[in-house]
């Protein structure tokens, strides 16, 4: 690798930015967060808590699989685990409709389409190492950028502790909300989907030449 | 009758008796277990039982959650086994029907009418070597059957068997059912890709394209009974219907008849059944996505494929054909028989059993229809399949959806409309049935043939 003055300058500037960011984050977020940290009173470990930890572990493991797998189909399976785990966590939060929607939209729709798209790629024989990563440096930079923010948010937010109530049906309430108070955002979202569809067709369509 | 090569000590009469005992006893025992367990494994009942039998307060006793979990686990075990057994018996029934339709002898060796053949096949598959192709993706190849199996087994959570006989009457039942079936597609896609075989890959891709496409008309068609009942719960949809044919969802709304047809066709396509069995078209793709599978994993795919017939039939019955509703037995009768006891009396169990019999009979009729369709229609081409879906089923599904919206408004104004539609459509269906039977008889007479039931 031949180092030109421009490259060296670029690296230096990048390093300076990262250092400044880290120092700023430490002062703005980590410090106050560490001060605010206090262990909340833990109750006895019930079935619900065990379930939560199992599901959370599944979700995190799945997310790890997405990030670390070298094969894009293994990543897809990791995604499946993560999405299933998130759906199950919705069930624990007694958001039944949301949980099933998660299952239907993300696993039945998005994941199947991802798998389908992978199968339609032409160089399917070389799929075993198909998940090129940005490299260690890029990963570390991203980690440095994201981790402090996430940690700070997790620690600084005054989380409300709510005793788990009985599961209530949410479907009717959601439907009412979508068709009354949130009608405009709901419709605008569907316009976005329509635009996406039209765009996809325009890109995929082959012009038939009259020859 | 089985013909033995060597002189056998087992008399034909014994064979018939044993076959009948197993053929009726096995599903009978499972139905009885479902009848008993599904009302008794509800958390509220378990809590009360814990309080009464052990004399501890279920709210503070640390093992209440575990007890509830074990109870649900037992019910789940019974339901999955029910799915497996019903799947095997469907194979036998299908093979008997197909051999009759094709003027073959068919299964006739193991047991009377070859009934034990499905057990023999299953045992044979269990003993076969579990081959994994050298170049296959080991993890995905091994795990794919479990996705398929999970999608199948999870459907049983919301399948109603009777008035109170359901593993969990989820508030989002129908929606849940559509969602978990998606896992089957994931399994099929993974099987197709991980086999590292062109046949399997094409089979998996065809299957995915087919299932994704047909989910849309199926989903929109399902909206029709949902709109008519105002709920997503399976039991709620059954409760919104009556016991007589003219009170069923399929007849009380003209658009619902269309929706039923669309739903039925889409279910056939989603279950990869002929005439939509392109994913495993034998003449083109060896065996499609399961070309490379053998032994137990292969058996799992077949278990799901045939077990799905029951699921399809039960869902169609629930959504459109009145479910478990028994004539002359209204919700008050169940409530009166239920009483306030923790374990209800014999009258209630009798009513529940009756509703189960109605549900099972209707399901079997629909299941038989699916089997007939498979052995009657040839496989369609892939372009025809896509045309049928996108150019016919989807627009018709949307049209019946819109019609139902208006129809519900009209019915709210004049409730007599639903009755008129119900009676008119029931009469039309009955007339069609009579014409069908007359035509069948006329065909038989014209061929110089006769209705022959002797080769059963």
List the helices and strands and how they pair.
The complex is a heterodimer of chains A (211) and B (456).
Chain A: H1 5-36, H2 47-68, H3 72-92, H4 96-120, H5 136-156, H6 171-179, H7 183-204
Helix pairs in contact in A: 1-5, 2-3, 3-4
Chain B: H1 12-40, H2 43-54, H3 64-101, H4 117-127, H5 138-155, H6 173-194, H7 198-229, H8 234-239, H9 249-252, H10 254-270, H11 282-285, H12 295-320, H13 331-338, H14 346-376, H15 382-413, H16 416-446
Helix pairs in contact in B: 1-3, 1-14, 2-3, 3-4, 3-12, 3-14, 4-12, 5-6, 5-12, 6-7, 7-10, 7-15, 10-15, 12-14, 13-14
Characterise the protein shown here:
The complex is a heterodimer of chains A (211) and B (456). By secondary structure, chain A is mainly α. Chain A has 2 domains: 15-35 and 46-158, NADH-ubiquinone/plastoquinone oxidoreductase chain 6, subunit NuoJ (Four Helix Bundle (Hemerythrin (Met), subunit A)); 169-206. In chain A, 72% of the residues lie in helices and 0% in strands. Chain A is built from 7 helices and no strands. Chain A has helices at residues 5-36, 47-68, 72-92, 96-120, 136-156, 171-179, 183-204. Chain A is extended. Chain A starts with a helix and ends in a 7-residue tail after the last helix. By secondary structure, chain B is mostly helical. Chain B folds into 2 domains: 9-126, no CATH class; 128-407, no CATH class. Chain B contains 16 helices and no strands. Chain B is globular and about 60 Å long. Chain A binds chain B through residues 44, 46-48, 71, 73-74, 77, 80, 96-97, 100-101, 103-104, 107-109, 111-113, 115-116, 118-120, 124, 169, 171, and chain B through 62, 65-66, 69, 137, 139-140, 143, 170-172, 175-176, 178-183, 185-186, 189-190, 192-194, 201, 204-205, 208-209, 211-212, 215, 232.
């Amino acid at each position: 690798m031949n180092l030109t003055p421009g490259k060296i300058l670029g690296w230096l500037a990048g390093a300076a930015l990262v250092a400044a960011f880290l120092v700023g984050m430490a002062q703005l977020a980590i410090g106050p967060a560490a001060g605010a940290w206090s262990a909340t009173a833990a109750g006895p470990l019930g079935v619900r808590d065990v379930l939560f930890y199992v599901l959370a572990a599944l979700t995190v493991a799945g997310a790890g699989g997405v990030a670390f797998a070298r094969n894009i189909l293994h990543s897809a399976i990791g995604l499946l685990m993560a999405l299933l785990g998130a759906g199950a966590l919705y069930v624990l939060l007694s958001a039944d409709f949301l949980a099933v929607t998660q299952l239907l939209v993300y696993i039945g729709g998005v994941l199947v389409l991802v798998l389908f798209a992978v199968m339609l790629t032409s160089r399917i024989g070389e799929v075993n190492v198909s998940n090129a990563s940005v490299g260690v440096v890029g990963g570390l930079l991203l980690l440095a950028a994201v981790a402090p923010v996430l940690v700070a948010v997790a620690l600084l937010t005054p989380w409300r502790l709510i005793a788990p109530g009985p599961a209530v049906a949410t479907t009717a309430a959601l439907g009412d909300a979508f068709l009354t108070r949130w009608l405009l955002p709901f419709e605008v979202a569907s316009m976005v989907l329509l635009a996406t569809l039209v765009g996809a067709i325009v890109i995929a369509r082959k012009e038939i030449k009259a020859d | 009758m089985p013909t033995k090569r060597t002189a056998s000590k087992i008399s034909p009469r014994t064979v018939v008796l044993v076959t009948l005992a197993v053929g009726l006893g096995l599903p009978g025992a499972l139905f009885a277990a479902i009848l008993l367990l599904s009302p008794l494994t509800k958390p509220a009942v378990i809590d009360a039982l814990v309080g009464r039998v052990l004399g501890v307060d279920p709210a503070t006793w640390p093992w209440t959650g575990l007890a509830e979990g074990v109870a649900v686990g037992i019910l789940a075990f019974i339901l999955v086994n029910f799915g497996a057994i019903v799947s095997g018996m469907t194979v036998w029934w299908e093979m008997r029907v197909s051999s009759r339709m094709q003027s073959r002898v068919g299964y006739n060796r193991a047991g009377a009418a070859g009934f034990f053949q499905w057990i023999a096949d299953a045992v044979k598959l269990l003993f076969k070597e579990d081959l994994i192709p050298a170049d296959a993706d080991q993890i995905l190849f091994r795990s794919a059957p479990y996705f398929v199996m999970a999608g199948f087994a999870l459907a049983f959570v919301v399948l109603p068997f009777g008035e109170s006989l359901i593993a969990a009457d989820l508030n989002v039942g129908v929606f849940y059912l559509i969602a978990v079936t998606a896992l089957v597609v994931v399994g099929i896609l993974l099987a197709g890709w991980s086999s590292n075989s062109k046949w399997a890959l094409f089979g998996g891709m065809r299957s995915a394209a087919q299932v994704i496409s047909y989910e849309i008309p199926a989903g929109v068609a399902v909206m029709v009974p949902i709109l008519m009942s105002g709920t997503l719960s399976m039991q709620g949809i059954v409760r919104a219907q009556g016991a007589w044919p003219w009170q069923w969802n399929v007849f009380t709304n003209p658009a619902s008849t269309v929706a039923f047809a669309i739903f039925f066709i889409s279910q056939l396509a989603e279950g990869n059944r002929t005439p939509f069995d392109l994913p495993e078209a034998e003449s083109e793709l060896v065996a499609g996505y399961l070309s490379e599978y053998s032994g137990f994993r292969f058996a799992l795919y077949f278990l799901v494929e045939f077990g799905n017939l029951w699921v399809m039939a039960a869902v169609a019955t629930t959504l459109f054909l009145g479910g478990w509703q028994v004539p002359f037995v209204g919700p008050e009768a169940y409530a009166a028989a239920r009483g306030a006891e923790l374990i209800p009396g014999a009258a209630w169990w009798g009513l529940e059993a009756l509703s189960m019999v109605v549900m099972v009979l209707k399901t079997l009729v629909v299941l038989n229809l699916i089997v007939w369709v498979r052995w009657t229609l040839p496989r369609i081409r892939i372009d025809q399949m896509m045309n049928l879906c996108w150019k016919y089923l989807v627009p018709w599904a949307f049209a019946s959806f819109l019609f139902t919206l208006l129809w519900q408004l009209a019915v709210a104004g004049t409730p007599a409309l639903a009755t008129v539609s119900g009676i008119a459509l029931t009469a039309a269906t009955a007339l069609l049935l009579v014409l069908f039977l007359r035509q069948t008889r006329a065909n038989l007479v014209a061929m110089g043939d006769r209705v022959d039931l002797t080769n059963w």
